[in-house]
Write a structure and sequence with these properties.
Two copies of one chain form a homodimer. The first copy, chain A, is elongated. The first copy, chain A, contains ten helices and six strands, in the order E-H-E-H-E-H-E-H-E-H-E-H-H-H-H-H. Chain A has two domains: 4-140, Response regulator (Rossmann fold, 3-Layer(aba) Sandwich); 155-210, Orthogonal Bundle (Arc Repressor Mutant, subunit A), CATH 1.10.10. A six-stranded parallel beta sheet of chain A has the order 2-1-3-4-5-6, sandwiched between helices. In chain A, helix 4 links the parallel strand 4 and strand 5. Chain A has helices spanning 13-24, 38-47, 64-74, 89-97, 110-121, 129-143, 155-165, 170-177, 181-195, 200-210; strands at 4-9, 29-35, 52-55, 79-84, 102-105, 126-127. Chain A is 53% helix and 13% strand. The first copy, chain A, starts with a strand and ends in a 5-residue tail after the last helix. At the A-B interface, helix 1 and helix 10 of A face helix 1 and helix 10 of B. The structure holds a DNA duplex (30 and 30 nucleotides). Chains A, B: Residues 5-121 form the Response regulatory domain. Chains A, B: Keywords: DNA-binding, Phosphoprotein, Transcription, Transcription regulation. Chains A, B: GO terms for molecular function: DNA binding.
DNA sequence: CTAAAAATGGGTATAAATACCCATTTTCAG
DNA sequence: CTGAAAATGGGTATTTATACCCATTTTTAG
């Protein structure tokens, strides 16, 4: 049976070590490269492409999502598996949208990681059972009937959202932006509608969860 | 030179593997145990105590803070080093308050981890340089003149905070908890004072940043 | 046990946010 | 150019949150 070539991208030395150690004793796999950041990964891929790429989401230079998008376009034959600590539904969705075929938590056991690699190598998708449930529940509870009318915020809305999150009242925001308080109220209302919440507290919580506002 | 006995508590197989692999080639250290959760750690300590304990903060059963508190009281001779992904200033503070002598990120290099162990074994404290800066800056920018009147929230306050973050008004919270709306107002006011913000939006943003509320 | 902190509850007032109605101007893509 | 979306602004009313004042009871730690 042909060996499966694997490459790792992770800026955590311990994770790299753990994976190196793991693959050393598994004849089925052949660890061909370990990168610490996105730049060296992209450079290395020009020389040699693995069958499977284990990709950390949090890297010092590029975001995992961007990398996945680039690689899945440039090297469509490489199977990408996101390997991360983040069990957030929105990260999972965005990574799959960005072109990964697998999503595994770093808390996963060796067996799960191997299963993910085998599945993705065989052309299937892989997502841990408990994460599948998470995604399912999230999809059922939020999306539901309306097909997300406007998931994206306009520039002004983002701007106002960020100012709301940073201890400013509508009046202060209006004065800062040289606008009427009514206009800010209008943006606030749109934000509440778009994120489907009924007050500022939930708006901020949801915006942070979705990555729309920063803390 | 006497070897340093080390024990690990971490529910990530990869981290455990990485550390095992690392200590295998270092004569100075003797890895005597690896635990997956707090319960088995506490059980194992009854049999044998390491010189240094590498403690993950996020464990399935106990919180790292609780564990650190228990162990530093029951076994004051054990040097505890928190090993975590969390570079949050408040976690760092609370872990040191709970009795750890070192705090190392999982992104740390092998050298840093070894340095931390040596320092703590020698009775010193260890904190990475960049984390030291973080703590310093946080102390300078927020604390300032008042010596942190109440950094910790009470149970009720946490409960109310969580409910505020999840789309509930004071009235609804009061009805749910069978309390007067006034009481909820009082808790909200205390939350605003403790986190030093002036409205709900900033309260939620800051609470999430500090890890006091979940999304 | 005793003192401190936490949790409970109230009155009153103002400020802010939210919910509806409405409109005009600007910007941008087709 | 032209139409759609975005951004701007207004009126009015209600609800909610915040800011002060005050108190009692319960829980917790020393």
């Amino acid at each position: 049976m042909k060996k499966i070539d694997i490459a790792i991208v992770d800026d955590h030395p311990l994770i790299q070590k753990g994976l190196h150690d793991m693959f050393r004793y598994l004849d089925r796999f052949n660890l061909i490269a370990g990168y610490n950041d996105g730049a060296s990964l992209l450079e290395g891929l020009k020389q040699r492409q693995p069958h499977i790429l284990l990709l950390d989401i949090h890297l010092p230079d590029h975001s995992g999502e961007t990398l996945a998008r680039i690689i899945s376009k440039s090297y469509p034959s490489i199977g990408i598996i996101a390997l991360t600590n983040l069990d957030n539904v929105y990260y999972i969705r965005s990574m799959f949208k960005a072109g990964v075929q697998g999503y595994v938590l770093k808390t996963a056991s060796e067996e799960v990681i191997i299963e993910a690699i085998e599945k993705v190598y065989a052309g299937e998708q892989f997502l841990e059972a408990k994460l599948k449930e998470l995604v399912l529940q999230a999809t059922l509870s939020e999306g539901g009937n309306q097909r997300q009318p406007h998931l994206l915020l306009t520039k002004r809305e983002q701007e106002v959202l960020q100012m709301i999150a940073s201890n400013m009242t509508s009046k202060e925001i209006a004065e800062t932006l040289f606008l009427s308080k009514r206009t800010i109220d209008h943006h606030r209302n749109n934000l509440l509608l778009k994120l489907d919440v009924k007050n500022t507290a939930a708006l901020i919580a949801k915006a942070i969860k979705l990555g729309l506002a920063h803390t």
